[in-house]
Amino acid sequence: MTNNDVLRRIRYTFDFNDTKMIALFTAAEAEVSREQISNWMKKEEDPDYQNCGDQQLATFLNGLINDRRGKKEGEQPKPEKKLTNNIILRKLTIALNLKAEDVLEVLELADLRISKHELSAFFRKADHKHYRNCKDQILRNFLQGLQLQLRPSDTEVEASDEVETEDKPAFQWKK
Question: What's the pTM value of the predicted model, to 2 decimals?
Fold first, then answer.
């Protein structure tokens, strides 16, 4: 997945407009223009398309964390120069205040089932012996699961009403 794909999916999932996108960058102490955001959202075939760099996406994710969780005291974290899917997944998990069980539920919404041990391997340090690279498929399914949770279509809502049981309540965001 490209950084532009991740940015587009997050924007759609949370229904962020240009003003909110700019505010998220500002929350991470960075400035972007409406034109930059517009160019990042365009398809690759468009002549105005611009690639969203790792540092820009990391800054956006830091801003999302600051917006959702509040700024931490002291110096703000510096955006990573090189992003991996593991870092993106970690930052989204932090921003949304998700526990391992919540992440697994989100992945299940996208019909991907992994164990808690497999999930924890994505959050380990790169030099740890049980570290595992988060492949595009995992990140794509996580973003898809978030989208299904936060923006269900009318047909998906009806279908989920039929599937829900008393043993398995619907996933609820913790506030």
Answer: 0.83
Which among 63, 65, 49, 59 is positioned nearest to 4, based on CA atoms? Answer: 49
Domain boundaries, the chain: 1-83, 98-164
Q: What is the pLDDT of residues 89-116, one digit of tens each?
A: 999 999 999 999 999 999 999 999 999 9
Instruction: Indicate the pLDDT class of residue 73, thresholds 50, 70 and 90.
Output: confident
Helices of type H across 15-134: 18-27, 34-41, 54-69, 85-95, 100-109, 116-122
For residue 29, the one-letter residue type is: E
CA distances from 171 to 23, 48, 51, 102, 109 (A): 28, 39, 34, 8, 9
The more confidently predicted of residues 60 and 162 is: 60
Residue 145 pLDDT > 60, yes or no? yes
* Percent of residues, the chain, with pLDDT higher than 90: 78
Q: What angle do CA 106, 109, 113 make, to 5 degrees?
A: 80
Rounded alpha-carbon distances, angstroms, from residue 70 to 5, 59, 146 = 26, 15, 21
| Angstrom distance (rounded) from CA 125 to CA 127 | 6
What is the rounded distance in angstroms from the CA atom of residue 7 to the CA atom of residue 47? Answer: 19
